[in-house]
Amino acid sequence: MRYQHRTLTNTLETAMSFSTPTRGFLGAVTASVMMIAQASEAQAEALTVTDIAGREVTFTDLPEKIVLGEGRMMYSIAPLVDGNPFEKIVGWKDDLILYDPDAFRKFEAAFPEDTARLINFGNPYAGDFSIEAVLEAETDLVLLDVGNLFKAEETGLVEKLGDAGVQVAFVDFRRNSTENTVPSLLLMGRILGEEKRAAEFIDFYIAQMRRVTNVVDAIPAEDRPLVVVENAAGWQQDFCCWSFGPYNYGRFVELAGGVNYASTLANAYSVDISLEGILEADPDHIIGTGANWVEARPEVTSTLLGYEGDPAVNAQKLQALADRAGFADLRAVKEGNLHSIYHQFYNSPYHFIAVQQIAKWLHPDDFEDLDVEANFDELHKRFLPFAASGQFWTTLN
Description:
Elements: E1 3-6, H1 11-15, H2 21-38, E2 41-44, E3 47-50, E4 56-59, E5 66-68, H3 74-77, E6 89-92, H4 95-99, H5 101-110, H6 112-117, E7 119-120, H7 131-136, E8 141-145, H8 149-154, H9 157-163, E9 167-171, H10 177-192, H11 195-216, E10 226-230, E11 242-244, H12 248-255, E12 259-260, E13 270-272, H13 275-281, E14 285-290, H14 311-322, H15 331-334, E15 338-342, H16 351-362, H17 372-383, E16 393-395
């Protein structure tokens, strides 16, 4: 099979460059889409792509059998395939089943035979990953997360797979997600042979992000509230707290017109913050992330946000988080600015929904007309194989 593709020279490299929070985002994604629009049809003996780790990966044919280093990569594959998103997926790590069972059951209901046949290959960054099983499945490509590049190289996984004739490509929807979502989608669109669909989804993504960034550009620094992000609030009982520096949800806060507290402490992806520090900072808003983790980890006290989220249950869960020692004294809790939002937006191209909802919390007057629920519904109607349901964010009553 010969592969016909659009020439996207330097698209990924262009899309990976940021400057200021808003101009950098717009520059990167606009350049990427312009490159798609200007591309010309070309015959190619082989498909060569540059992945998010900067590695050149060459295919003589489009990969037909793909292994996902994380099951949650289905968040990004699903909107790119107009049909069965599992058609080329032979297996994965079972994190989608364990940590977002609501979403897995949505996929399972839509594609019962495909989800049943998937092989659990284990964690590619740990000793339980079976290269032998990958080879037995005649895998063409293993997709990995760039945040685990060092582990994949240190363990020799990339080299071993390459020696066996299995290609490896890195994508990123987690670490530098607002920077790398567009190039990752372009990469995956090419690999899946879904460039047109990828371009359509990227257009949608850009338009949704601009609903916030175009407004935030005009908000002065002194009007941007201080925000504490609590990563996986309620996951642990004896420690406060995990947060993000200027990455992931920390970056979402900044793009939504807030000052991320943990970014003032460290320029790091993950930042440990103390309750004493939060009390001293006395933030304007606190945003915790939550998901249905209780099936895999019954002791969690997190909000159970997701496709099966129950508003009454989550109201009780959020009140319990507010009642933790020390939190009741915080101004954000007293003023009703304690929020919870779906954790899995942090590893998904749908993070524009999180950015929009955070913007509405931080600047309600500026975003009074922004209908996040309607945008979430449109995402599902246009790009996903199942309808929206459940609850994905909530605020303390």
